[in-house]
UniProtKB/TrEMBL annotation:
<comment type="function">
    <text>Mitochondrial S-adenosyl-L-methionine/S-adenosyl-L-homocysteine antiporter. Mediates the exchange of cytosolic S-adenosyl-L-methionine, the predominant methyl-group donor for macromolecule methylation processes, for mitochondrial S-adenosylhomocysteine(SAH), a by-product of methylation reactions.</text>
</comment>
<feature type="transmembrane region" description="Helical">
    <location>
        <begin position="219"/>
        <end position="244"/>
    </location>
</feature>
<keyword id="KW-0812">Transmembrane</keyword>
<protein>
    <recommendedName>
        <fullName>Mitochondrial S-adenosylmethionine carrier protein</fullName>
    </recommendedName>
</protein>
<keyword id="KW-0677">Repeat</keyword>
<dbReference type="Pfam" id="PF00153">
    <property type="entry name" value="Mito_carr"/>
</dbReference>
<keyword id="KW-0999">Mitochondrion inner membrane</keyword>
<keyword id="KW-0496">Mitochondrion</keyword>
<feature type="transmembrane region" description="Helical">
    <location>
        <begin position="6"/>
        <end position="27"/>
    </location>
</feature>
<dbReference type="InterPro" id="IPR018108">
    <property type="entry name" value="MCP_transmembrane"/>
</dbReference>
<keyword id="KW-0813">Transport</keyword>
<dbReference type="GO" id="GO:0005743">
    <property type="term" value="C:mitochondrial inner membrane"/>
</dbReference>
<keyword id="KW-0472">Membrane</keyword>
<feature type="repeat" description="Solcar">
    <location>
        <begin position="162"/>
        <end position="250"/>
    </location>
</feature>
<dbReference type="InterPro" id="IPR023395">
    <property type="entry name" value="MCP_dom_sf"/>
</dbReference>
<comment type="similarity">
    <text>Belongs to the mitochondrial carrier (TC 2.A.29) family.</text>
</comment>
<feature type="repeat" description="Solcar">
    <location>
        <begin position="4"/>
        <end position="77"/>
    </location>
</feature>
Length: 262
């Protein structure tokens, strides 16, 4: 990929990722409140549905861009013949590496966002300051392991998301299924991020968090928020592809018309 093409893809990936996160934010809030330990109504119900959106707005673009950069870099390192049977493995490894690095930005943003979503009266900056004061930097990385595990399990599909609209349709179905299967991990991540400092859940043990939900709420607790999660991830593929295509085409057109590119 040439430099203008790479830059256009990088920026388009960031814009597309931010578009998905912001457009589908209400669904994410509903999902978080369904998964919260206090229950949907006490967590805010349908009130303040955009609580926590500043955190998403700040973290979304660099998160998506970091994923793309890492994905492309690892793909180049794992160079294989285009006809090689190892090509899908290369995409999976590159996407997994991309998720691990992107989560360094995503998790702090997610922690602040989720706490704002279940306490809509609190300001995003206030929540961020409280976490730093009470728990330090490690408080912002609560749930890192569960987030990486959740994302890595279905990150393989992100490498093929921008091939065509046909693949987007297939990706939507695959994404919906993957969203349902990984919901228990998402519930564990939410519980870990929302847990009170010093509690056993706050320690970040994924299996322990899932076991706690199972004991108190059973199977329904482990799959809390599964429907808004499935809808958001399925729709997200189409929104991502549309935003990516439009942004990339616009940037390449501007690059071609620029005097510096001649």
């Amino acid at each position: 990929m040439d430099a203008p093409g790479f830059t256009a893809s990088l920026v388009a990936g960031g814009v597309a990722g931010a578009s998905v996160d912001l457009i589908l934010f209400p669904l994410d809030t509903i999902k978080t409140r369904l998964q919260s330990p206090q229950g949907f109504s006490k967590a805010g119900g349908f009130r303040g549905i955009y609580a926590g959106v500043p955190s998403t707005a700040v973290g979304s673009f660099p998160n998506a861009a970091m994923f793309f950069l890492t994905y492309e870099y690892v793909k180049c390192l794992l160079h294989t013949d285009s006809a090689s049977h190892f090509r899908p493995v290369k995409h999976m490894l590159a996407a997994s590496a991309g998720e691990v690095v992107a989560c360094l930005i995503r998790v702090p943003s997610e922690v602040v966002k989720q706490r704002a979503q279940v306490s809509a009266s609190s300001k995003t900056l206030q929540i961020f300051s409280t976490i730093l004061h009470e728990e330090g930097i490690q408080g912002l990385y609560r749930g890192y392991k569960s987030t990486v595990l959740r994302e890595a399990l279905w990150s393989w599909r992100r490498g093929h998301m921008v091939d065509s609209w046909q693949s987007a349709v297939c990706g939507a179905f695959a994404g919906g299924f993957a969203a349902a299967v990984t919901t228990p991990l998402d519930v564990a991540k939410t519980r870990i991020m929302l847990a009170k400092a010093g509690s056993s859940t706050a320690a970040g043990n994924v299996l322990s968090a899932m076991h706690g939900v199972w004991r108190s709420q059973g199977l329904s607790g482990l799959f809390a928020g599964v429907f808004p999660r499935m809808v958001a991830i399925s729709m997200g593929g189409f929104i991502f592809l549309g935003a990516y295509d439009q942004t990339r085409s616009l940037l390449l057109e501007v690059s071609r018309k620029s005097p510096c590119s001649r």
